[in-house]
Amino acid sequence: MTEALVRDLLASDLSVLETGLKLLDIEKFIPSELGTRSFLDLLAKDHSGHWVIIEVKKTNAAAREAAHEVFKYAEAVQRHFGARNDEVRVIVASVEWKELLVPFSRLKAETSISVDGFLLELDAAGKTIKAAYVEAVPVNLGRYLAPWHELNLYHDQASLERGIASYDECCKEKGIEDYVLVVLKAAEDFNERAADALTNTLQVVQAMFESKGHEDNYNFSAVPLARYEYILYFTPQILSREFCLDVIAREPTLLEEVECIKEDMSKEEELCMLHGNVYDLEPRPVRDYFDIGYAAKFKDTLLDDEGWTVEQVLRRGMFARNNLLSDDAIIDELKGLTGSSGQGFKSRINMANRAHVASARADLSTALATNPSWHSQINRILDDVQKDTPEALVDINVFCPSSGVFTLYFMATSEDSISYMPSYQIEIMDTESNITKFYVGLLVPSGQPATFDQILEKYYDNRIGALMFLAGAGFYETRDADVMDDLGLVYRSFRVDGLQGDAKWFELKDERWRAFKPDLPFQPLQPYFDANGPLIKLIVNEIGSRMHGGIHDLS
Description:
24% strand; alpha+beta; Trna Endonuclease, Chain: A, domain 1; six-stranded mixed β-sheet; 39% helix; 19 helices; 3 domains; seven-stranded antiparallel β-sheet
């Protein structure tokens, strides 16, 4: 069938795309004073009275042009009819999506106009047509390292070199072109500390089993640990769902299993599962030991706690071609500081650069997925800055661990408690880098906290083992904001003006900046710990008695 016949067949029944669509015209001519005259495949109106531009494509060659064309058509419709952005929608309907998916996804992410995609399926006779909604893939940042990593350990340099060569071969075989390999070197005393930690942990576990009267004679004696000198840390540019399925299709049995289990998954869960299956598919790289990796493990465990150092960043594909991209920027992305971890974000924004601002807002949305309060408050701050000082430079540093009860545990038990305290800092600077305003986000007391038993009952089926289960997921609690609220804590924002002279403090409360005079140094959490000593002590005892090095008691 020709593209025109596909268009006419779709025009005969727009309900396959959306209920309530009313066809207004076919091949609608839209003049433009800018010289970009347009013929719209289909022009329709939805049930809310919005203009709907429907662009129909049949081949991959034509599909490649669609993303550019819809920008042009939407602008022409706005000018011709005097319509606002929110009064115009675009639907891209195509028989082929292999070439279209990435530019469509980028268009959907970058434009303020509503854009949707549909895969058209025609019957053999070309008499009827079906349409399936197309989910965009996360390519809006251009560069977006997958948040699911592989952590490979090697005994020595020779073993590491074999691992690097095998990774390149495996990625070539699977068609993965864009990826990074970070070589980490062990601290001088890493292996000795690891052996001591294992011995101590096994002794605690042995005592725990004996105290509980187990009849079986468990022997948790430490065995000599293998020594590891290097880590090869792998992550690719995020792979699309379609790419993953194409690779997995080489194993029909595996593809059948994947198709079966992905039905009940969210989009993120599905993409995570698909990446894991692509990684696991033969051929696999050479490694002496393997573990999964993610941003919190890379930053907190490997670099901060265990003292591994970055020795080399190996780039492949587009990462090698981008000579403006620094190694430090790649490391920051692996740490999750671009928001991908859902726990942190760090960036400098030029408010005059619309792309900077849009990208930062998107990253913040990911970084603060569990913290709607800070997400809303920081966006409010960016709105104010954009309005008042549109040429300003803005430094943002957000740490939102989303650990729920574990936030209080780590703050109470760590010598460096501030490193576990959720916070953000925003510095507003003029063109000469002078700080003109400073914003800070903190966790502050708000009301009477629930008891520890009430928290367990409400969120963890009255089982502390269910709470401890979070330890295996980097202590990440998706309900963090709700848990904190029940613990009598809320996420608040503060502003400091006049940093060069008499500082004036303001608190964002009830959508207004209210002036107040804090006690300095400003430590709003200290009164909470002072007033709720019994609760904090109970949390420390209950969790601490189940934390044995890297082993967590889930009973």
